[in-house]
Design a protein that fits this description.
single chain, 130 residues, alpha+beta, Nucleotidyltransferase, domain 5, two-stranded antiparallel sheet, two-stranded parallel ribbon, 4 strands, globular, Transposase_27
Length: 130
């Protein structure tokens, strides 16, 4: 279970253990291959790490992002940066899959946890009858 120590708006900029956590993904547009992923605060350093670890993996010089201004501050001038929601379906599907996979630790969000719990009750009932 993930416990948020305090809301993001109450956190100081250097408090890394409390507040919101963001997932940054770099996807290949045509194949949907995840080139890089980073988890952290929604700061310029997260974007710097994401861009640095993505560079050189493809020859693509286009970055499509949401409207956050941090990308414009970090991306170099030789990269074509555009803000668009046109090609976000694959990214949102990847984010959804990632959240579902990490949601296994949260019993109430994972449908299999309920099934396993039901099986456990079933087996406990069977042992009591024997």
């Amino acid at each position: 279970m993930v416990v948020c120590g305090k809301k993001q708006r109450h956190c100081l900029p250097d408090e890394l253990e409390a507040g919101d956590c963001w997932i940054g993904l770099s996807l290949a547009q045509l194949s949907g291959l995840i080139l890089c992923g980073r988890v952290g605060k929604h700061t310029d350093s997260l974007v710097i790490e994401l861009v640095a670890s993505t560079e050189g993996k493809t020859e693509c010089k286009e970055w499509g992002t949401d409207g956050w201004s941090g990308y414009g501050r970090v991306l170099s001038s030789d990269v074509d940066h555009y803000i668009s929601k046109v090609l976000t379906q694959r990214l949102e599907r990847t984010n959804s899959t990632l959240r579902q996979q990490t949601g296994r630790w949260h019993r109430r969000q994972n449908k299999f946890a309920r099934v396993v719990g039901a099986d456990k009750d079933h087996f406990a009932l069977g042992h009591q009858l024997l």
